[in-house]
Design goal:
mainly alpha; single chain; about 65% helix; 33 helices; about 675 residues
């Protein structure tokens, strides 16, 4: 292997020694003792071809130096911690431990290589654990003993100073504050468990991190004034209880003159890793409510960096505290088909009762957030940034109907129903969709008590009133679309949706939109798509196989659905020739819905029963053939997918059926084959 000659001329590190220069070419061909996967990691550097063998050798040697440098750093960190921890716990050299800890912190705050940073993190944690072990075993209280005992806290204070100091944080280039976060984790993880000694470093660090992750004192004071009802607004957040004011910190929030957006970004990034860190889960749990508040306030900041870090904190809190299902799968509990709007009834998500009991600061903050949204929406037609995360948080909770009755919590959740209903009229489609999901979560069940403002009957009635309301001077289609989304979400989350849909007022309102305004075709396609989805669910709900479903084909819903579907297909084909952008709005949403439902309906009618006569079967074969030949690509694609999804199982069931004779079976397969 090559060695670098430390000659007097090159002692400053700027030039390589003569011995190294002579060996550059010879070592290039030598076998590597390291993982060569890192060589060529820089895609831009690797893409530039060398013009000569000498240049290629020089590049190879340079890459060896880079790889060897971070490997040397990793080994040096591990060796340093091994040397320190090899001392008996009662005779640690104070000066050596102090110097080693400072060196590791400097390494963490300057390195960009993840592997080297994690090596320094592990070494610093081992040093901190050695200090705590020394503290528990020390017999005397000499000066040296006290200095070792206080080292982990002093390291935490140094890290806090570095992310809050204007001069230091301005020049920081760490990606996502990795080094700072790992340093804090090293110190906090090393504290003995609570059953051995009270933990003081973790609350101190987390409280200060949350303080730095918030806006300046003026902004926070204004926000808290209309948020709290107690005499002291400082009782609102948990982190304030763990702060100790001093001459250097005379306010619970960062002073306006000392506020730095870079410090706030570092604090948010550290907070994210602390939330995701499993060993700190018990210490972090009581601060999560403050972390969510800090993240949502961050959405309002003018700096993109702050908003980005706030988003990552919010995502981490959602994953660790609200719902551990990272993919957030949604399916109906009362239907065999997959639904995009109803949360799967798993045990991962926290209930509203547990959330609001654990974090009492959240309800008043979230309510004030909605009030700010109403003010901002009235002043200018813009999306209030924290509104969607607020609705997402509510939508990811377990439904109120699945938790035990609690009058205090029910009273709190009821406060959110009116604001969420108002969000159904929002001008942004994503907000309306999320508000509909949140509404189903806030629903307390299928109670028929008229005084229960959170029952499904009451909420369906509110959505129906929104759907039937007359707007002047022009129709608010956002409100109509949101009301339909709310009805769909409430029905899909109910085990008694069939009985709920039997209400004449509800059925008439939905049927009007499903029929595209009784053939007037003056309703937005987006509203028609949701109405058809509701109607199809009402027809198919509780029918687990096609034969049972077909027994309802003579009902008012099913026959009406069939007519509405194929009228919609003809209308979509006609609109496809028009060039008006206003007419085409929402057509891409409606077309797949129509194709999917029509394909599934025809498949069920064709394969579902042997009692269909030949004329009836031919009718549906003609209908599905018409859809497969539609000039709307979205209709064709969705219909083919729906038909193909069931055709294999349907053919297998026909072949296995004993009540279908061979002649009828062959005739049916021949007809379907000819149609295809």
């Amino acid at each position: 292997n090559a060695t670098l000659d430390s000659s007097p001329e090159s002692s400053d590190g700027n030039t390589l020694g003569i011995k190294a220069e002579e060996n550059v070419v010879s070592v290039a061909a030598a076998p590597l003792n390291v993982n060569t996967g890192a060589i060529g990691a820089n895609a831009v550097f690797a893409s530039i071809k060398a013009t000569s063998e000498e240049e290629e050798a020089n590049r190879f040697a340079t890459q060896r130096v880079v790889v060897g440098s971070w490997l040397l750093t990793k080994e040096a960190c591990a060796a340093l911690s091994s040397v320190i921890t090899s001392y008996p716990s009662s005779s640690l050299p104070a000066q050596l431990v102090t110097t080693a800890g400072s060196l590791l912190i400097s390494t963490l705050t300057s390195l960009k290589h993840q592997g080297a940073a994690f090596a320094a993190h592990r070494a610093l944690q081992e040093l901190s654990e050695a200090c705590h072990a020394y503290s528990s075993n020390a017999a005397s209280n000499s000066l040296g003993n006290d200095s070792i005992v206080n080292l982990p806290l002093s390291w935490a204070r140094r890290l806090l100073h570095e992310i809050s100091s204007t001069e230091i944080v301005r020049d920081s280039t760490l990606r996502r504050s990795t080094g700072y976060a790992l340093g804090f984790l090293s110190v906090m993880r090393s504290e003995p468990p609570p059953n051995i000694a009270p933990r003081s470093i973790c609350p101190f660090v987390l409280a200060n991190i949350i303080r730095l992750s918030l806006p300046c004192a003026t902004v926070m004071t204004q926000r808290l004034e209309h948020m709290t009802t107690s005499n002291s607004s400082y009782d609102f957040m948990v982190f304030i209880q763990h702060l100790s004011l001093s001459s250097q910190m005379n306010s619970y929030f960062v002073e306006d003159a000392s506020y730095q957006w870079r410090s706030r970004v570092h604090a948010l990034n550290v907070l994210r890793l602390a939330i995701l860190d499993a060993p700190l889960a018990s210490d972090m749990r009581k601060f999560v409510g403050d972390a969510i508040i800090s993240a949502m306030i961050g959405y309002d900041d003018e700096s993109w960096a702050v908003r980005n870090s706030a988003t990552m904190v919010f995502a981490a809190a959602m994953l660790r505290v609200i719902d551990a299902d990272k993919n957030a799968s949604f399916s109906s509990s009362s239907s065999s088909r997959s639904q995009p709007n109803v949360k799967a009834r798993g045990g991962n998500a926290i209930t509203a009762r547990e959330l609001f009991r654990s974090y009492p600061s959240l309800p008043p903050f979230l309510l004030s957030l909605v009030e700010d949204n109403q003010t901002a929406t009235t002043a200018a037609k813009v999306l209030h940034p924290p509104l969607f995360p607020f609705l997402l948080l509510l939508a990811r909770l377990q439904p109120a109907s699945m938790s035990t009755a609690d009058d205090a919590v029910t009273e709190t959740t009821c406060l959110f129903i009116k604001p969420v209903l108002q969000c159904l009229s929002h001008r942004h489609n994503k907000v309306r969709n999320m508000a509909a999901r949140a509404l189903a979560v806030l629903c307390s069940g299928d109670s028929v008590n008229e005084k229960d403002s959170s029952s499904r009957y009451y909420l369906l009635s509110c959505c129906t009133d929104l759907l039937e309301s007359r707007d002047c001077p022009k129709v608010d289609w956002n409100k109509k679309h949101g009301a339909l989304l709310g009805i769909r979400s409430l029905l899909l989350s109910s085990p008694n949706s069939r009985q709920l849909f039997d209400d004449q007022k509800l059925y008439s309102a939905v049927a009007l939109y499903a029929s595209w305004g009784s053939g007037a075709f003056d309703y937005p396609p987006s509203c028609v798509a949701v109405a058809l989805d509701i109607l199809e669910f009402a027809v198919c709900n509780a029918f687990n196989d096609a034969e049972i479903m077909l027994k309802s084909m003579g009902g008012k819903e099913s026959s009406f659905l069939e007519v509405a579907l194929f009228d919609a297909v003809h209308r979509i084909e006609a609109l496809s020739h028009e060039r008006s952008p206003t007419v085409m709005i929402g057509l891409s949403t409606l077309s797949p819905v129509v194709g999917k439902i029509a394909g599934a309906l025809c498949s069920s009618a064709i394969f579902g029963s042997d009692k269909l006569n030949g004329d009836e079967c031919n009718k549906f074969l003609i209908k599905i053939e018409t859809i497969f030949c539609s000039n709307s690509f979205d209709v064709r694609l969705a219909a083919v997918k729906a038909f193909k999804k069931s055709i294999y199982g349907a053919v297998d069931s026909i072949l296995d059926a004993t009540n279908i004779n061979a002649e009828n079976r062959s005739r049916l397969k021949l007809k379907v084959g000819n149609m295809l």
